[in-house]
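Q&A log
Question type: sequence-to-structure
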Amino acid sequence: MTEQQPYMPAIIERKWQEKWERDGLYRTPDDEGRPHYYCLEMFPYPSGKLHMGHVRVYTIGDVVARVKRMQGYNVLHPMGWDAFGMPAENAAIKNGVHPRKWTYENIAHMREQQKRLGTSYDWEREITTCSPDYYKFTQWMFLLFFKRGLAYKKKAAVNWCPDCATVLANEQVENGRCWRCGSEVTKRELEQWFLRITAYADRLLEDLEQLSGWPERVKVMQRNWIGRSTGAEVDFAVEGRSERITVFTTRPDTLFGVTYLVLAPEHPLVPALAEQSPRKDEVLSFVEQVKRASEIERTAADAEKVGLFTGAYAVHPLTGERVPIWIANYVLVDYGTGAVMGVPAHDERDFAFATKYRLPIRAVIRPRDEELPTPLTAAYVDDGILVNSGRWNGMDNREAIRSITEHLEEIGKGRFAVSYRIRDWLISRQRYWGAPIPIVYCDSCGTVPVPEDQLPVLLPEDVSFAPGTVSPLATNEEFVHTRCPQCGGPARRETDTMDTFMCSSWYYFRYASPKETTRPFDPAAVEKWLPVDDYIGGIEHAVLHLLYSRFFTKVLYDAGWVSFQEPFRHLLTQGMVIKEGAKMSKSKGNVVSPDEIIDRYGADTARLFILFAAPPDRDLEWSDQGVEGSHRFLHRLWRLVQQNRHVFSAPPGDPERPEAKALRRKIHQTVKKVTEDFAERYAFNTGISAVMELVNAVYAYPEDGDPATKAEAIRTAVILLAPAAPHLAEELWEMMGGQGSVHQQPWPAYDPAELVSEEVEYAVQVNGRVRDRIVVAADADEEAVREKALATERVREWTGGKQVVKVIVVPNKVVNIVVK
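Response status: OK
Response body:
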């Protein structure tokens, strides 16, 4: 017998990674004879190191890609870097390192970590969003939106540090203070660029129905984010002024219950109302105080609802009553119309607000069969009939919604309307490390887009991050001052950069033809590969990234660049990796380093544990014992091949012996199970468990059994495990005398006829308790099963001298004998 070699993951894994790279094993072949399959994991931000969440998502995607290749697909499996963003800029500010240098050093390190994991990426298609050859086309995308009337500029609030005299990203505001100097952050209005995603709100909502391959909870999150509501807009005249306050409501049936209006502090009418108010200073002070809070703080369910009466009144459109106008922290200027009507009798939030500030509460809907208590002790929010509502008294409130809205339309004080929670996408960032917005401003020509043949607008290297700069790009005079593309006169460049979501909203198109220099992608290549067949990433991207990507795809469809409207056919959102009940984080001290695990156990152990510990869509609880267990199993498989090298060249034995038939049946059962779990259900944990059971069956196989059957079982186990443990499988395949790479072998097929057992075991019960077991031919009829069950020695001990009342045979499972 050949001397057994120890399993040494570090040596084996390096050997095969180098060979795969030399041979170009994972380059996407130009093979039109095979069906195409596009498997994509969400690309990472190059923060410097992979964490276990990365390992999980990339291992899941790698298994899918490897299985599909072995099933005969021509697979596109690329990787790249979402490389613009705040951390690089923060590093520049703190450490004096240029963002470009910091980013590319991190990319180099993380690329090596990816390769150590054994991922089967086509690195020749690698993209980096901060590279000019990529962001040139992010700028091209902006111009496409601009030309189609979907990019526009308007004033919007930003975080402003008065001491640093600079704009802060949301991430740079810590507990309401500047991360750099600790000063209290205020809001400031700046002209900023938006994309008109609201123009696509209905299509983004309706087309969710087409996404049968998406988790329902992701679709629910997108529906809620879009937030389509049908109702009415109602116009309230302002006493003593020409302006009107328009509110949107889904409940025009409650219009007679309005006892106050509430404006957002940022509403454009507020300064004028304050100017006329005897409480001017108080109103303006309140406005500034509310502006300092974030939208999240103001709209949180547990946030205190704080308001102030402006001293002004509106006029009720149907009754002519005076309605006090308030401002409050819970109304946002960008949601709805920035104004809401207060109906405390029929809205819980309004009831609490009115109770707090002693505002009138007037019931206008009551239950059909009872009266409401007086005074109300809680808001009545159910359906009913109208009261205190003029000519609509006694009408069903659902019917009144339409009737009152129609009347408002007739008298010119309202209209049917649809409102959305989603707002246009603010893409301006007063930061450096992002794609410059390709716009120039000319005193003669106005706002002028940079011509496509002048792209990219390059980021200047020399900028200042010193306090006092609204935007770092504005500190480079050479960048700012340019010539107008239309008239040739002096012009100024836009100094904002784009939100990094702009880069990640189209990157999956670029992988189809990453070397294109004159257009963002080759439409023919995109037609061949897209939509993405499997898109894999975290649930935290359920709304923004996925919604923006859908938006981009629909715009490209409308512009004639692609023939489909949805970018991702199937979406897998993997759970988090947690330890000691919490998400891994440095602050909690529960981080496990992928490098340490790979150094100690090897990448295949890390991959196997990640796949085996939990279904991919569930959170995975880290377990050191689980890692050890996965490592032991790989050692066990290694020993199995080492100890049985002879069976791969041994003369055949008797394949008809019962133990050979049983092992062959186990092989086919395992292939069926793993195929379903790896290629269809993505239940990798149960698929790996099935391979473990097959390995156990081989260990239990008699030494004198048919060697060909044993060899088939071992080969099958190695091939089935290859997507999960690619290095070990490659080494064992070579050890067994396999030709070529194990990853180029066809995926095993199973024979349904081999799944059927020739014999069946029955449990035999006497009065409900198991007393024996029998084995009969699979095609034995019920009478033969009954006779054999009654004839066994142990059963006779329990039935002797007793009357057999009946014998019940449950096919292929149990025989129940009833005696008395």
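Response note: The first strand starts at residue 36 and ends at 41.
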